[in-house]
Amino acid sequence: MLVLSYPAIYTLELTATCNNRCPGCSNIYAVSRPPLLKTAKEWTALLSPILPEAVQVRLSGGEPTLHPEFFDILRYILTAGAHVTVFTNGRWRNPEHFVKSMCEWRDLAGLLISLHGATAASHEAFTKVPGSFQETVDNIRLAIENQINVMLSTIITHDSWNEVEAVVDLAQQLGVQGVAFNRYLGAPLADIEPTVDEMRMALKAIQTLPSTDVVTKFGIGIPQCFAINNSEGCLAGVAYATIDPWGNVRPCNHSPTVIGSLHEHTMHDLWHSDKMNAWRALMPTECTTCAAYPVCHGGCRAVQELRADGRDPLRGEPLTEYVPAQEIKELPANVRPRRNFRIREEEFGYALLGQGHVLPVAREAWQIVNACDGTASFAELAAHFGQPGLDLLGELWELGMLDAA
């Protein structure tokens, strides 16, 4: 597993405050720590050394829009040129004002809105707020009517595991771009967490969804030893880090491990610290022998921190053979691909940094990468670079890291 020299993807937890009461909240400090609000000026000072290297930034919480200076923080972060997404529960204090204000930020990648089921019963079993389903759906519709890009984030729970198709149908009715289905990550919660069988059936439903205008994907990787699937391995501690409301750096928003404070250390020092290296090494040795390890990275380190047995509950026995769930589709021969990613030089070669994707490549791939400038078609590039070039181009195209010129 190749680790970047500096993180490229961040979640910024602007506040621990939230107007939902989800018992399975991924904000591990929501209850255990008192609320704290850094001012926009304090966030600016904290982030100014970091943002130039950021490719993707997700504003989260708690509910980030409850921060009284939310728009000031958003304005500053957008100046860095990163892809910025607001991860929100869709329950805004003044929806019309919020949406009107968001319309001013056309550089924003969009909103990622939590919708944890296709019905009020399943969604509110997670949020614990009566009426929150309809409020969220109404605000999703309002945002889309105002040409704001919306993705849904749906956690598979004991109440929603059998609503996969219904969630996608609802997403299509609302006009959202896509749905990211996520596994539950946290301490065991019998009323929230799906059983192993329920998770398998939900996974199968996601894998076999019919093609629609709604893009569906896994927001969090599922171990391939649990079931062969097309999710990607977690980038926490590899290319991704979280900064909490107190200025602490954690490997991800699900992990309770505090690596250190940005008030006392640089991000570079924390990223290369013994504590971060120890967190990266939490993966069981047997996972590194699995044929699928380069794809799924062995499951979730954060969830094993939160379990008494210290194990990802979806992790099975290492695979001796592995065939990906999906083959790369045939490339459109006449399309002239153009790079939609940043290139960062690393010790291992180059890191190609797209929106939510990091693809490490050897130095020998430079000519192929450099040729994706919109002047040559896929057919021409394939003829010039052969099968190795075609494989890399196909992967970049599938990941959305190439545009048609």
Key terms for this structure?
405 residues; alpha/beta; ten-stranded mixed sheet; 15 strands; 29% helix; 16% strand
Plain-language structure description:
The chain is of the alpha/beta class. Helix content is 29%, strand content 16%. The chain has 13 helices and 15 strands. The chain has helices at 40-47, 70-78, 95-102, 120-127, 132-145, 164-174, 196-207, 267-271, 274-280, 293-296, 301-305, 366-371, 378-398; strands at 9-13, 56-60, 83-88, 110-114, 150-155, 178-182, 215-218, 240-243, 248-250, 260-261, 337-339, 342-346, 349-353, 358-361, 402-404. The strands form 3 sheets. It has a 10-stranded mixed sheet, covered by helices on one side. A 3-stranded antiparallel sheet has the order 12-13-14, with no helix packed on it. Strands 11-15 form a two-stranded antiparallel ribbon. The radius of gyration is 21 Å and the shape is globular. It starts with 8 loop residues before the first strand and ends with a strand. The mean pLDDT is 92.
